[in-house]
Write the structure tokens for this entry.
Amino acid sequence: MSIIRKTGASRTISLQELEKPQLFRDLFPYTSICRTTFDNVLLAPRPAERMRVTDTTFRDGQQARPPYTVKQIAQIFDFLYRLGGKTGLISASEFFLYSPKDRKCVEVCRSRGYVFPQITAWIRASKEDLKLVRDMEFNETGMLTSVSDYHIFLKLNKTRKQAMDMYVDMASKALEWGIIPRCHFEDVTRADIYGFCLPLAQHLMELSRQSGMPVKIRLCDTMGYGVPWPGAALPRSVQRIVQAFIDEAGVPGEWLEWHGHNDFHKVLANGVTAWLYGCGAINGTLLGFGERTGNAPLEALLLEYISLTGDDSGADTTVITELADYFEKELNYHIPHNYPFAGRDFNATSAGLHVDGLAKNEEIYNIFDTKHILKRPVPITITDKTGRAGVAYWLNSNLRLPDGRKISKKHPAVGQIYDALMAIYEETNRTTSFSHEEMEALAQRFMPEYFATEFDHVKQLAGELAAKLIIRLARNNDLLGFDQSAKARLDSFAQTYPFLQYLYLTDTRGKLKCATITDPKYMEKYQALPIDYDFSSREWFIMPMQTGDLHIMDVYQSQFTDKLIITVSCAVTDEKDSIVGVFGVDIQLEQLMKQAKALREEVTPQDETESDV
């Protein structure tokens, strides 16, 4: 095969029907590590004219973690827009459509009005699924199009001809309905490229010509078998696959996407290789979330794009730091500390660098100006050579103290931490640097006022979990009559959530109208609060009446049960949004925390409102 390539399909490639599946056992022995073979066909790089990134954070990315809430997806979609959607570099993001929550996510993100990322769908190869796409007025959808014999013979139990007919029929129907099909060639790196993939691609290009609409193809390295090495043979060679689709099947490069997985640690290299050999878009996810080992990290693709093109304005890289903070603080996801660009210590040096050296020679240790590009300073490693200035620098950087609260090396706590460090080095003959965790422990010891306590975290979690449950009940129309229906609703709610110690409903004057006591052994004590008892002076009543919002009190000890409790209250409103009363609950903190994980899973999917996003 010549190193000089022709553009456009020059010959028709016929489907090769086989009685038995082609499993390439010489390449994929299964009981051994897969083999890479070379046939010494060398291709010249031919970069895509316009490199783009597409996103699958909400599709493939959600298959590797607990599902995002509607509110979280809306926030992350905003991040994607700011990160690269404004310029069109992040050109599309795909969504599931199957559940009411999936469709709500689409609705909320569409309401943003962003041109990019374009919101696209993902479906199985089913006409029922395609109807969902049509009914939701999508312009483009991805469609599962499995191409290896592993899938065709062993999973779908079809012949190659049957599979091809099914895929072509699905694409035809999409085009008939005015929808651009994006055919996901699943498991392409274990597929018969010339015997099935290219004939199918040629059929799809013929449909495109007939309809006057694009038919896109996503090349899915489902198992991460792709390799970027020059001279590697099909079906594993990324270079060969991409250029075969462009040159042999006549697929325009801008209609091709590469979707990789990281099973063999090559996901980023394979994606960039696809770009360099003509593939228009690389599909990735934020922080590389995805099935099994994950997808190409979207943030890494953006930096590679800038490196390859010199287009510094293509992406706002400072958003990466904001995203990392959001995933850690709001989504409780621990990013590995050495994770590139987003990890806490990714640009830290362990070479004993101190503040004076950092100020003089930052470029020696830093890959680029992280303050400018990522809005994050260079972290330093603490050793016995660091000095008080280094301790102060570490504290200001890692506690993220704003300019008005930054501390100097003269701060008494800085001196105490430094003295403690030096004592350890002198007493133990230590030669290694201090870890982040060790420094944080010293900082908490001498500067406790700068840290949220575990109790603070418990209170926050308790309030967040309870609040969503309380809002759910407060919306129930049964409460509006203050009658037996309201009492029955409180009783039912208390039985479902026994950590609720006391539930109560007042009118707008603060008069108790009905209540439920969860534990009968405290019944006698609660009799001091009869019907029409006046709660109008209580904080939990006053605040919802003033604001119409939820109110969460601080933790205190119940005078009735002696347990630590937190009181959450919420205004009860009618169909005109007028306040008609206040609903409150006393929650036993210990019991709530025992059920925290289950409650988090329960309240996350369903307690979203338009006001949340």
